[in-house]
From TrEMBL:
GO molecular function, one term: purine nucleosidase activity
Keyword field contains Amino-acid biosynthesis: no
Keyword Hydrolase part of the UniProt annotation: yes
Protein name: Nucleoside hydrolase
Inosine/uridine-preferring nucleoside hydrolase domain boundaries: 4-303
GO terms, biological process: purine nucleoside catabolic process
Keywords: Glycosidase, Hydrolase
Gene3D superfamilies: Ribonucleoside hydrolase-like (3.90.245.10)
Domain of life where this protein originates: Bacteria
Regions that span the bilayer: none
Organism: Psychrobacillus glaciei
Any single Gene Ontology cellular-component annotation: cytosol
CDD domains to which the protein is assigned, alphabetical: nuc_hydro_IU_UC_XIUA (cd02651)
């Protein structure tokens, strides 16, 4: 099995990423932690608990920091809805919130582990940044961070900044400079990891209560995304499953390709704050700290996702 910790801000595509992880017993999910991003801390922790309970997974869920390091929190309620899950309801959680904070739980889980753990991060990097700052001794226990965030070219919050990095660039800066290897599923690859409106019919055809909830969430996602800054050229009819890439890469890295290079986070730029500056052309001469993904085998990726929805619907 592959030991992982998942740090997220559920979030429609975050719960899709959890679905993929839950469907694969070869992933040993040690811990789930949350932070604000798509919605407030209160709502993202509720969603993580409710969704994990609904999927009948007995995994520790711990609450992280309640706001970005320095920035005022900006949530994406226009994309993920009032409850963060496109108004789709899950029953009240049966799982109890952990009595450890996210940072404590991550630190203790990492230090107690005999093997290295992969950190999957699908939200702003507030918790991971705090962990690496406060407890640098955990670094050698992290195999790599599979991160959904950033972009080499083109943002979705500003012309150049992607949402997760934009929300807490200071935390992202700490993580990108930490020396821990990072695999970045930025918009370059996640915009190619989509499901079409027509393919939503296939999801609905699975026919389980869960599959219908998935289709409803994804319909909400495209509906609202169309009306926001997330609208980009060639967007028509495509629902991007951003966060799923960070889990899919851990399971099947062969579906992806990318380049090793140096990436830094812009903190202050007049126009570019929160941008990941990807040194494709090796101008800085700085060591490669990130594998920047740019391509995914969409058909296989989609098949993997549909299978996960099928498997989890039977629980
Ligand atoms: C990222 O922003 C969030 O809204 C999504 O959950 C994803 O993590 C995409 O830019
Ligand atoms: Ca997310």
């Amino acid at each position: 099995t592959i030991p992982v910790i998942i740090d997220c801000d559920p979030g429609i595509d975050d719960v899709m990423a959890l679905t993929l992880a839950f469907a694969h017993p070869e992933l040993d999910i040690k811990l789930i932690t949350t932070e604000p991003g798509n919605q407030t801390q209160e709502k993202t922790i509720y969603n993580a608990l409710a969704f994990t309970s609904y999927m009948k997974k007995n995994i520790e869920v711990a609450k992280g920091l309640d706001k970005p390091f320095f920035r005022k929190l900006e949530i994406a309620d226009e994309v993920h809805g009032e409850n963060g899950l496109g108004d789709v309801q899950f029953p009240e959680p049966t799982l109890q919130l952990s009595n450890r904070t996210a940072v404590e739980a991550m630190k203790e889980t990492l230090l107690l582990s005999d093997e290295q753990i992969i950190l999957i991060a699908t939200g702003p990097l507030t918790n991971v940044g705090a962990l690496l700052l406060a407890h640098p001794e955990v670094k050698s226990k992290i195999k790599y961070i599979s991160y959904m965030g950033g972009a080499a070219v083109g943002g979705n919050m500003s012309p150049t900044a992607e949402f997760n990095v934009y929300v807490d660039p200071h935390a992202a800066d700490i993580v990108f400079r930490s020396g821990v290897p990072i695999v970045m599923s930025g918009l370059d690859v996640t915009h190619k990891a989509y499901v079409t409106i027509e393919e939503l019919d296939e999801i609905e055809a699975i026919g389980t209560e869960f599959a219908l909830k998935v289709a409803t969430m994804l319909r909400f996602y495209i509906h609202t995304a169309k009306q926001t800054a997330f609208h980009t050229p060639n967007f028509e009819g495509q629902i991007r499953l951003h966060d799923l890439c960070a889990v899919s890469y851990v399971l099947t890295p062969e579906l992806f390709s990318g380049d090793d290079c140096h990436v830094a986070v812009e903190l202050e730029g007049r126009l570019t704050s929160g941008t990941t500056v990807v040194d494709y052309s090796q101008r800085t001469g700085l060591p490669h700290n990130v594998k920047v993904l740019h391509t995914v085998h969409r058909e296989k990726f989609l098949e993997q996702f549909l299978n996960a929805v099928k498997i989890m619907g039977q629980q």
